[in-house]
Amino acid sequence: MRFSEDRLTEFAAAQGVLRxxxxxxxxxxxxxxxxxxxxxxxxxxxxxxxxxxxQHGIATVAYDLCGHQDARRVDxxxxxxxxxxxxxxxxxxxxxxxGLPIYVMGHSMGALIATHLGLGHFAGETAIKGYIxxxxxxxxxxxxxxxxxxxxxxxxxxxxxxxxxxxxxTDQLTHxxxxxxxxxxxxxxxxxxxxxxVRFGNALTKAQQGLAARMxxxxxxxxxxxxxxxxxxxxxxxxxxxxxxxxxxxTYQRYxxxxxxxxxxxxxxxxxxxxxxxxx
Length: 280
What we know:
alpha/beta; Rossmann fold; two-stranded parallel sheet; 9 helices; about 35% helix; globular
């Protein structure tokens, strides 16, 4: 397996579409992490935390999100697809691991998705014991001009699959050079995307809108880690939104020197240990 998975499988997502699932599993798991990857990435990117938690008796399962499986340019019909697919994935996880506690883990766009799920599709789900969020993509760190934002809807209607010009930030995701090299290999091999469509970008922008007002109604235990040197997600905005969650539910960390991918950063072992202690 390319990302040290114990197995690859599939589940039936919305409209019967089969999506690939990466599974890291100890012999007798005592809990399972339902992991949601970031934008332009894939489920295999969870290999680093998954191998750590496998050593501690916890399985990790991550599916390749809509528009991301072996895709060089990410396109989706709408943000709701992520939510609908994840609800079906939760049912698959419960069938595969009956009775085990489930923790939802999301990084970047995956954290944005997980937040919407916690406030909606997953709300009140007793099998879910908590949420773990890294560098949530609540606000874009790269500011977009108001003119371009105003035109986004028009461009989406006229040319939804048109490429959005983006500067590569692959070298600013982690200080770990080996993982950065892996990302570049994934891009070269067409596993990790390097482009997005207008429709995809507009869907994320819409998903970010109005979320801050909903955060105080959060009801589940939440562990969140924010990267202070993040060049993709606005760390200050994420911190403000996370700290609007009831204090009794929130465990919050901020690492000033970290780049965007906390779970791939040089201090990840400390972060994982803190998560494990929080889970226990």
